[in-house]
Amino acid sequence: MTFVRFREMVPNLFLVALFINVPDLWASDRRHSRHASVGGGMTNQLDPRNTAAINTTASRKFLQEFLQDIPPPIIGPVFDKTVPNNVTGLVGRTAYLHCRVKNLGNRTVSWIRHRDIHLLTAGRYTYTSDQRFEAIHEPHSENWSLRIKYPQKKDSGIYECQISTTPPIGHPVYLTVLEPTTEILGGPELFIDQGSTINLTCLVQFAPEPPPTVGWTHEKQPINFDSPRGGISLVTEKGSTTSSRLLIQKASSSDTGYYSCDPSNANSATIRVHILNGEHPAAMHHGQGSIPLCPPIVSAMIVPFLLIFTARDL
Fold this sequence. Notes:
Elements: H1 3-39, H2 48-68, E1 78-79, E2 86-90, E3 95-102, E4 109-113, E5 118-122, E6 125-126, E7 133-136, E8 143-148, E9 157-163, E10 169-178, E11 181-184, E12 189-193, E13 198-205, E14 214-218, E15 221-222, E16 232-237, E17 241-248, E18 257-263, E19 269-276, H3 281-286, H4 296-313
Parallel strand pairs: 2-10, 12-19
Antiparallel strand pairs: 1-3, 3-8, 4-5, 4-9, 5-6, 7-8, 9-10, 11-13, 13-17, 14-15, 14-18, 16-17, 18-19
Helix pairs in contact: 1-2
């Protein structure tokens, strides 16, 4: 503590000491007056316990009033670290990045994209030509949010909530934007015995909303559920993960080929179905009923030698 600060505090310290001892002086004065009254015929005396209680109460009251006049220490702005800083968004669905600042004062909160060090917003104003980004702030609140409309996978990355102190201080928020995925279980190839039931299950995940429709095609032709063949049904359950199950009973050779699941708001998925008629799957890969014993070129080399040995025997 410097001498100047000590000199400034001396009057305050003197006042504290003075008011702490005022009750003692007042009590002493009353004690003398009471003793003087005894000679005049009065028998009342001041109780020492009452004197101590009055002394303590007056001291506390003065200290409370004195301390209220002392300005509180200045605390700079701080980030509320309890706000989640890992955000997962979906392609096409509005994403919100949240930032809460306490003791902001007259400073400004900005949002900066780390990928290209681009200033997106400052206060409640947007400083980018990309109108998908917008600052959200309610007056007199501590929340400063960044709204991203129609986010794309390329929007994934680090965004910084920054306060205009000297030097600036920042709080990173990590955004991950997921694309919808479509998968047919058991792919990319499925082997089914002839006469059994083909069961194809398609799963659609990370879509901004459940797909309004999920279509199926066979060899690029829409599947006709009312065809004379019969035995074809579709069961679709929508939710955060949408499942669509295609059932084809009594599979025949005509059911062989490529099947595609086509959600209306996500990419399609394809699987190849093989119908086995007592054949081994390995044979299907060769396109023949059995595996060749040796390559054709080897057979071509062996035939002349067989003819020579046959002629000698004759």
